Amino acid sequence: MGRRVIKSLWNRDNLLDLNENFVELYKDIRNSYSISAGFLSEAQNVLENAKKYNLENQDVKRQLDNIVLESGDSNVEVAQARSTFPTLNARLDNEFQRLMDNEANANRAVIATSKRKFPMLTFIDDDGRTELKQKWEPILKEKKNKLTVALVTSWVDREAPTVIHWDEIHRWKEEYGVEFVSHTHTHQRANSLTPIQVEDELSQAKAILKREGLTHDIIVQPFGENTEDVRRISRDYAKANFGIKEFVNQTPFDTFNAKRISLADSFNNTWEDYKKVLDEAIATNGWVVFKSHSQYTSFDSNQIELIKKIIDYARTNGIVNVDLEEGLQYFGNIIDLGDYTARNQAGVHYYVLDRDGKVYSNTNSKDFWAYKYNSVDFNTPVTFFEPNTTSTTTIVSSASSPFPTTKPGTLITFRGDSITLSYQLYIPSINDQIYKRRWDDTAQGWTSFKKIVTDNVEYFTRHYTSAIKINANSTYDVDISNAVLTSLGFKAGDLIYGSPEIKLPDGVVYNVMIVTDNTITVRYANTTSSPINVNATNFNFKISRVK
Q: 287 φ, ψ to 5°?
């Protein structure tokens, strides 16, 4: 940041430069706060510079105060510089305090994101209607709660009689701390818009909110119409987009299709409705974002009392009331790329690192785990292990007594997407024998270990499987038998491993088995509610058979 040099006190340009100095300092701190914790030290330096410049300009401010007081606003430039404050000194002091507050908030946000978890609550009222003054203002005065209002910028700019205007908006921001965000420019249904029109809606709203010094990088989508175009284009103009999906937000955060729950609506308007989602947030450290329309007749006096009850219940039970800016600081993903919302669609790429440091990706999944020795014991349930993964655990002497041979060894666990496909192998360190058991989902426990190898031979073989279609929530068996397999002479129950040479579609898992002599069965399972096509591929098999 380059600070403007003040050469003369009453030069018009230099007076504006003085004002701009502070604005630039404020922007620097805000940017440092918003980008990441890694920039906190830089923000601190900026803050210290702000303190220094404030001290250096004390004499200048005092002289400006005197001019303003003596001239009674005759100097237009002085009046412009002090804005709505009685003196320029008062404005600079106010802005400096905001610098201090933002630095403190930055530290608090970083601590919360990395260490603390707590349930959160946000109220959003859509459209910025004049009914806000009759419905929400009494609540704000009594409860001192936080509120976000989603503005349709064209309505406000043309001073439509049904919405609050800029002077009222700025009063609410200063007096009650209300956060104002984008509800697009003209409040159109995204389902009927072209990509160019979507971009126009978002860009115009952003420009106007930025002009007014309001939150310009958070979108509340009209009608909740969250299309692929909306999610893609929103990334160019905002850090989040909130739709309408009647769920509590959980991690990973669906950044560009964030969830809201209806408040004071025809189908969601009782204390039981509200308490249910609040309790869910408490149990899961989730984020409840309520959506309301103060202009609706359903938003009546009874609902106002219920909102007050929500606020009281939240405060009593440790639910933190945040605006959207604050909520994203605590709850937002650390990295958010691609289209997580459409993650179940073929060909969609995404990479999300949530606030807890857990990765969600379609291209960088982890299907093998190595657990620390003795972190898994003889009775550890299959639910402990990650779905559709293989893991290994070293069992040392002190924990080996329940295992076969009572000797230390290696425990190999495979957990399928279907629990019933899960099994464990135990390989003692004293010999080359292998023991196997499976998960019994009915009994909710492991079966007994059985020795499956005494003296064995191993075969490696490669075979083709044709393209298939698997119905929703179904399995499909592919049997492989030919002269090559017959020549190997293996039997039902022999041990087999297999892997395809292509990546199977998301939602498809497989198991390989020998249930008939000299025949390999590949069992595919579709765990989704839609049919899935699996391309033809080759499988590589390892068969272990007893001599």
A: -120, 110
Instruction: Measure the CA–CA gap between 25 and 21, rounded to whole angstroms.
Output: 6
- The two three-digit tokens of residue 202, written as one number: 């978002």
3-state secondary structure of 101: helix
The one-letter code for the residue type at 413 is T
The CA distance from 137 to 164, in Å, is 12
pLDDT at position 25, please? 55
Residues paired with residue 439 on neighbouring β-strands, in sequence order: 446
Sorted by sequence, the CB contacts under 8 Å of residue 334 that are 6+ apart come out as 113, 353, 354, 355, 357
Which alpha helices (H) appear in 165-319, and where do they start and end? 166-176, 195-211, 228-237, 271-284, 301-316
More confident of the two residues 91 and 177: 177
| Nearest alpha-carbon partner for 63 in 142, 103, 10, 140 | 10
SS3 4: coil
Decide if pLDDT at 432 tops 50.
yes
Query: In Å, what is the CA distance from 129 to each residue of 125, 134, 188, 333, 464?
Result: 9, 10, 17, 32, 65
Predicted structure pTM score: 0.53
> Is the bond into 252 cis (omega within 30 degrees of 0)?
yes
Q: What is the pLDDT of residue 104?
A: 43
Residues 118-332, CATH architecture: Alpha-Beta Barrel (3.20)
Q: Is 123 helix (H, G, I), strand (E, B) or coil?
A: strand
Q: How far apart are CA 275 and CA 306, in angstroms?
A: 10
CA angle 32–352–345, rounded 5-degree value: 140
Mean pLDDT, residues 32-51? 51
List helix spans (H) across 409-520.
483-488
Lowest mean pLDDT among 103-117, 123-137, 421-435: 103-117
Is 80 exceeded by the pLDDT of residue 269? yes
Domain residue ranges of the chain, discontinuous segments joined by + = 12-111, 118-332, 368-453, 456-546
Specify the 3-state DSSP secondary structure of 105: helix
pLDDT (0 to 100) of residue 366: 65
Q: What's the pLDDT band for 419 if we cut at 50, 70, 90?
A: confident
- Average the pLDDT over 299-319 and give the result: 96
Model pLDDT for residues 156-174, shown as the tens digit of each residue: 999 999 999 999 999 999 9
Which pair of tokens denotes residue 295? 């202009």
Please report where in the chains the tokens 């655990």 appear, as a residue: 393
H helix runs in 115-237, sequence order: 132-135, 137-143, 153-157, 166-176, 195-211, 228-237
Q: How far apart are the first and last CA of the chain?
A: 78
CA atoms lying within 13 Å on the CB side of residue 335: 11
Q: CB-side exposure of 53: number of CA atoms within 13 Å?
A: 25
What is the chain's alpha carbon radius of gyration, rounded to the nearest angstrom?
32
Q: Give the architecture (CATH level 2) of 456-546.
A: Sandwich (2.60)
> How far is C-alpha 309 from the chain's CA centre?
28
